[in-house]
Amino acid sequence: MIRIVGAGMVGASLATALAKQGHQVCLYEKAPWAPSGEGDARVSALNQNSLDWLESIGIRPAVHSFKRMQVFAERASSDLVWEDPDSMGALVVNNVLQGAAIESAKAAGVQLEYGRSLRWDDGLWVDDALLQSDLCVAADGARSLIREQVGLRLRPRDTGQNATFLRVCIDPDFADTTAQVFLQTGPLAFLPVTQDQAVLVWSRDLQAEPLPDSTEQIAELAASAFEHRFGRFTSMGPATQVALYDGHASQYYKDEVVLVGDAAHQIHPLAGQGVNLGLADADALIAAIGTRGLGVPALRQYARERYWPNEATRQGMRALQHAFGSPFVPLTALTALVLRTFSYSNTLRRASHSIASGRYNRR
After folding, report:
1. How many CB atoms lie under 10 A from the CB of residue 315?
2. Hey, what's the torsion of the CAs at 227, 159, 143, 98, to 10 degrees?
């Protein structure tokens, strides 16, 4: 029996794949899934690798594809643009992907348990009963209790920023383009989720002047920050704000517990790679178990395969955050030069396109 704690996007997807591999799987979550409201602004950008893997295990959430990605900075003279006439990837509301993954898990025969009291003490205790398990997967997020109880430490680093999420109405002419502008106070992302709606994710330094209380004013400021390249934004609902941290566990497994997704690593959301890394974790763990069975050799293979790609991405996001947000004039000039170099080099553009779409690590 494989027991997975956390039925989020990664945990439920992993449960589906394991069940289809022939394993008995029990999935634990605090409460049954319920659809979110129309103004839900928590979204993820799925690269093509993630989309292909989800499709391969039968998870098909409603997504909004995009064909163009555009990046620029307020003090740089060049833009970096990737385009694919078919698809660069897709945006999905987190709640929608989670719901689709849970339904697929149920269809695959996964046992779901809600509201149980869980703890790890030389085994997984469920409602004060020690249950037998061949493997326990901690997929319970950045504040994973199972990770802490088993002694796998992760020290989060405060990025010095928070993120504001706001869903807005947009001009349909820009529905196939995602964009990011790097401001001195932090990056602002434009993420279309339907033909006429998008999510704005505005990461800002804690010492920056606070955004207005009015969501209409936030939408207007965001349109101005994008130099009105994507028309006018009209707010749809309340804005939500979260503190941003990054961190990485020094070990991915101990005893019969293994970490996946945010329980193992957190990164700055500026490039939207968090869920892609989590799904890549799930894919790698499935492959390791498939070739080496349930046991330490499989967990060791999984950890070796995923630790350094996750760490490289985390460090890359930190470097981008500092480079584009720095007031240091020579660094700003270097950033502008890098953007111009990428813009004029077909080789670099093709390589960065491969990384952006997730194809660089396709199995």
Report:
1. 13
2. 20
Backbone phi and psi for residue 253, each to the nearest 5 degrees, phi listed first: -150, 155
Helix (H) or strand (E) holding 48: helix 48-56
What spatial distance separates the first Cα and last Cα of the chain, rounded to whole Å? 27
* pTM for the structure as a whole: 0.89
Give the bridge partners for 131, in sequence order. 124
| DSSP one-letter string for 190-239 | EEE-SSSEEEEEEEEETTSPPPPS-HHHHHHHHHHHTTTTT---EE-S--
- CA dist., res. 145 & res. 138, Å (int): 9
Whether the Cβ atoms of residue 180 and residue 189 lie closer than 8 Å to each other = yes
SS3 9: helix
Encode pLDDT of 54-110 as tens digits.
Answer: 999 999 999 999 999 988 887 656 678 888 888 889 999 999 999 999 999 999 999
With pLDDT > 70 as the criterion, what percentage of the chain qualifies?
86
